[in-house]
Design brief:
Layout lengths: L13 H27 L6 H8 L3 H8 L2 H15 L2 H10 L4 H18 L1 H13 L4 H25 L8 H11 L2 H10 L4 H16 L7
Helix pairs in contact: 1-2, 1-4, 2-3, 4-7, 5-6, 6-11, 8-9, 9-11
Length: about 220
């Protein structure tokens, strides 16, 4: 085993260990921020409070995330990872040429996102209402998702899968109007639908509205 010499040469095992420690610190910070944003609200949570909850210094948070907006962005980034965005992108590529299968994948991803990450969405809603300038951040996150749909729907349009007189842009708009957190919240949490029923009905409606020659029952 090699230790640091008098010339300042570092132990080659130090960097992986330090990276692991830094990642654990980031996780503590994000967990603390998520918990406080939910219980106290975004506006009433200070970075100092997050630092105390995570057991780190204020400067550690400033260095890693800057202001509270950086913490919110990190929470948003975690949402896609938790819902399996990388896997669904691979599955979409594998389903090229099968728009119905790709639509199934899109709606299933949304269901996972809305069901598993509802607390995160509540945080973002609260943040946007208390600090209106954050609305742009939230809209940017939604637009990233819309651009993914737009790319796929553009292929559908080129290949003749979209219904007559429907272009990719309005198709993406229709998708987001139907498969939305608002519709999931209303139907599942207010009207008592199961998430399975929401997923099935959302696919049925979108397939009928978007895909040429698709028949749903």
């Amino acid at each position: 085993m090699e230790y640091e010499s008098s010339s300042g040469t570092r132990n080659p095992y130090e960097s992986p260990i330090r990276r692991e420690q830094a990642e654990m610190t980031r996780e503590r910070i994000i967990d603390a921020a998520r918990s406080l944003f939910l219980t106290r609200g975004y506006a009433r949570t200070s970075l100092k409070r997050v630092a105390a909850e995570a057991g780190v210094s204020d400067q550690t948070i400033y260095a890693a995330y800057g202001k509270k907006r950086g913490l919110l962005q990190a929470i948003m980034d975690e949402m896609d990872l938790a819902a399996g965005v990388e896997q669904v992108m691979a599955d979409l590529a594998a389903a090229h040429g099968d728009p119905a299968r790709q639509l199934v994948l899109f709606v299933a991803y949304d269901r996972r996102l809305f069901e598993r990450e509802r607390d995160h969405f509540l945080i973002m809603r609260d943040a946007g209402s208390s600090e209106p300038e954050l609305v742009d951040t939230l809209r940017a996150g939604r637009e990233r998702g819309r651009q993914v749909h737009l790319r796929i729907f553009s292929v559908w349009q080129t290949d003749g899968h979209l219904i007559d007189a429907l272009d990719a842009e309005p198709a993406a708009d229709l998708y987001h109007a139907v498969s939305s957190l608002e519709s999931f919240d209303y139907l599942v949490y207010e009207r008592g639908w199961s998430p399975d029923r929401w997923e099935q009905e959302t696919f049925r409606i979108l397939a009928g509205a978007l895909l040429r020659n698709h028949r749903t029952t």
